[in-house]
Design brief:
Length: 535
């Protein structure tokens, strides 16, 4: 594709000469409208744009730009949590009651003022609907029966919430920066209520927010169009419109970008990113995501229950080689469960490929001749390439690895049923508090099939009552420095010995036209920011 484009440029002088001779105008290069940001992206994952329901990547980032949340992160520093709809707050001495003052002067896209009543309704609505992301709020002890009593508006500017335990205040505030803490226009939503659905059907493809942009339309598998809100409390966005074009093929995204038909390409392969980097009209941007890739080792497999075998596996992986030659900048080596970029991550990477050490550890574990192991993995890139590298280096250490590729839906069904031996899977936190990930990896006091929490520890039959107690205690630690230190210690323990071998952290790479400035990718699925972009 790039070679053909370059060849066309070489022939351009001759073409111009012919056109001039025929007195025909020379067509100008394609360009997007100067007041519009056009993004090429695969957006077939959008199911709903209702903040109480959205749980997909594309929908999450759109919600982040359509709605204001109670709290948010500074676009230039995702370690800095700040009030968004909330201007100030107070916390009771027992840590179980929070009082929030609503920022004055905020207005919804409808022109109505944003009130504490709207904020209370928004939180209550999430719990009442009980959609997938509702657990972010129900973990505070809120239920359909009690949420109206525990989340209340004392007056138009004062929101009050009560929670069931004295959790770390930073944890509570961070949870209120998730998409489910978006504030919706109560009057607008209820005007479109059907059969008591709290406006859910209508909000799937309409908006009722106060954010930087309002939703103009969503045409499934075609496009999403947003229009700037001139009353946005941080100032009107420089660009009047943002259009997400559904372009599922990465090669098509790059071609459209090179032609000037789009401003940003979001889903390029490493080779396409490299190609874009050689085009003088384009620039590259990257951002570490909190997403990680890890191996899960089922402790019901006798060999994997041996700590020396788990250590041997850690030394039988070519982390640097995979990152450099297969992942090519779209992942970096990272060996702890919390990704860098939003504060509190353990960034030490003590393990590297050492076949001799791996063999010695296997011999000490009673497996001098190695053993056989199956690895479930997604049948798509880059998982297949990672798995093939693991198969090669494991064989050098003496472990015969049989690859079992499948579609992601089948892969996760098998993993959740604990039917794997080893599995290669990703993890992405639901919101930017480290507890959202620690809760997944370091809690399992009930390994029965009927356990309530079926997280990674449960899926890998890792029964850890003591570590569970430590995790629960850390969640209640009110001192931020002490809490951060305790989470670092949890990461060290998991890194040193656990049924998880964390391999890589994702780096999101995009290509954009050189005149595009200020587009913020953010560290997680629902943090990209459009309203600072200009061109």
């Amino acid at each position: 594709m790039t070679t053909h484009f370059k060849a066309w440029r070489v022939r351009l002088p001759a073409v111009i000469a012919v056109l001039a001779a025929l007195a025909l105008p020379v067509p100008a290069p394609a360009a997007t409208p100067p007041d519009t940001l056009v993004i090429a992206k695969n957006i077939d994952d959008i199911i709903s744009l209702d903040p109480a329901e959205v749980y997909e990547y594309s929908g999450g980032e759109l919600v982040n730009n359509i709605y204001d949340r109670l709290f948010t992160y500074e676009p230039g520093d995702f370690t800095k949590l700040v009030g968004d709809v909330v201007e100030s707050w107070e916390i009771a001495d027992d840590g179980r009651a929070f009082t929030f003052r609503i920022r004055p002067g905020l207005t919804f896209h409808s022109g109505r003022p944003v009130t504490a009543g709207d904020a209370a309704f928004s939180l209550q609505r999430v719990v009442q609907l009980g959609k997938t992301p509702a657990f972010i709020l129900t973990q505070f002890g809120w239920t359909k029966d009690n949420v109206a009593e525990r989340v209340t508006a004392k007056d138009p500017q004062t929101l009050s919430i009560e929670i069931d335990k004295s959790y770390a205040p930073s944890f509570v505030l961070t949870a209120l920066s998730a998409a489910v803490a978006s504030v919706v226009d109560r009057e607008e939503v209820l005007a479109h209520q059907v059969d008591g659905d709290l406006g859910s059907a209508w909000l799937k493809n309409h908006s009722a927010g106060s954010g930087a942009y309002r939703l103009v339309n969503w045409k499934p598998n075609e496009s999403v169009t947003l229009e700037a809100n001139p009353q946005f409390h941080r100032g009107a966005a420089p660009l009047k419109r943002v259009v997400l074009r559904h372009v599922p093929e990465a090669a098509s995204q790059l071609l459209l970008l090179q032609k000037g038909d789009t401003d940003i390409a979001r889903d390029l392969t490493p080779d396409q990113v490299k190609s874009a980097g050689t085009d003088a009209a384009l620039a590259l941007a990257s951002s570490p995501k909190t997403n990680i890739q890890y191996l899960g080792l089922n402790q019901s497999v006798a060999a994997l229950a041996n700590p020396k075998v788990r250590q041997a596996i850690r030394w039988a992986i070519d982390y640097q080689g995979i990152a450099a030659h297969l992942l090519k900048g779209q992942f970096i080596v990272h060996q702890a469960f919390w990704g860098r970029g939003s504060g509190g991550s353990l960034d030490d990477t003590p393990f590297h490929l050492d076949i001799a050490k791996a063999k010695a550890l296997l011999a000490e574990a009673g497996y001098p001749n190695g053993f056989a192991l199956s690895l479930d993995t997604a049948s798509s890139s880059p998982d297949t390439e990672i798995a093939q590298s693991l198969q090669s280096t494991f064989a050098q250490a003496g472990i015969t690895l049989t690859l079992v590729p499948s579609e992601k839906k089948q892969l996760f069904t098998k993993y959740r049923a604990r039917q794997h031996e080893a599995v290669l899977v990703p993890w992405s936190p639901d919101y930017l508090d480290i507890h959202s990930t620690a809760d997944f990896f370091t809690r399992n006091a009930d390994d029965s099939d009927t356990a309530a929490a079926k997280n990674a520890a449960w899926r890998n039959h890792w029964l850890i009552p003591e570590l569970t107690r430590e995790t629960d205690a850390t969640l209640l630690e009110s001192d931020p420095a002490s809490r951060a230190a305790r989470y670092l210690e949890l990461q060290r323990k998991v890194q040193a010995d656990s049924p998880y071998v964390v391999l890589f952290q994702q780096i999101e790479q995009v290509a954009l036209r050189r005149d595009v400035k200020g587009f913020v990718l953010g560290p997680s699925w629902d943090t990209p920011v459009y309203w600072q972009a200009s061109k």
